[in-house]
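--- STAGE predict ---
source: upstream dedup step, 1 unique chain passed
mode: sequence only
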Amino acid sequence: MPAKRDEDLFQDTTMTFGEHLEELRVSLFKAVIGLAIGVAIGFSVGRWMVELIEKPLSEALGVFYEDKSIDDFTKFAAEREKAGEDVYYTTDEVAHLVKNEHLVLEIRYVHPQQALSELERSEPKAFHDKKLAAAANGPNHAEKLDVVIDGKPKKVRAVTARARLIPLFHWYSVAEDPRTNPTTLSAQEAFSIWMKASFVVGVILSSPWVFYQIWSFVAAGLYPHEKKYVYRFLPMSLGLFLAGAALAYLFVFQPVLNFLFGFNRWLGFDPEPRISEWLSFVLFLPLGFGVSFQLPLVMLFLERIGVFSLKAYLEKWRIAVLVIFILSAVLTPADPYSIFLMAVPLTILYFGGMLLCLWMPRAAAE
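--- STAGE serialize ---
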């Protein structure tokens, strides 16, 4: 039998203003203590957190320089074929080495006579071919070429011409490429990043305790029939937030970075991202996803207070989808991948919000 709504129902929840302040002081003190303990634990795993944050960026940079290697070889092969010279590899062979073996290719040029001379000096016993020895000790291409240097015509030896140089392919693992590591531009920046990463770990670890303390303060001012809604929707809100943040880290970072770096490659720019800028991006994007995933609960709240009805949600779903895509463009870097990866789940959650309103209609709540 439902309880009667009279003054007796609320007598146990009545608190003075001073009691509310005392409750707030105790809750904040306990929350700060929990946060301090979480941050202290975060200091011990701060380096691991930095590596976790850095991983998507390093992988995206690796993909960028792998694709750049294929582009560089394609241009090199076109020039060699145009000149009627050997290319040594096919583009498919290079693409296989790059994508399957995760190797990066650099094309470097050396002078053959210098290379032969160095080989003879370092390995005289192995240097037994008379033709090679003659080439190594032969004339140093004393003929002169007319060139322009600093706007002035000059004669230089042919040895300085690119036609005398031979290309050498330098292969190495993409993991060994220093360009795939984010950079710091000051001595204290690395320490600052470690501190921020440790603090983030502390906030994550202590967040359940902090939320509990906030809830305990809020609950002190609620009536018994109101508390059950907090018990019901607070875990759902936390779960939606974590789901949105996890979606951003696991499925959004990589395609977004690949797109942005691909745009750099298209324009001919080599990215040198700073770890501090990347950390801000890492924190902002999951936060935007986590907050936006509260959409079903916001819809239910607006339906509860009479701002919208389930019928209005059904009739205006096209406008709602348009608004979702606009908000996705605001909360993300505005590239097509991140907009799509946020807007599609939010559209699904919008219809999930309507199901939630249908499952818990306003009349039943009243």
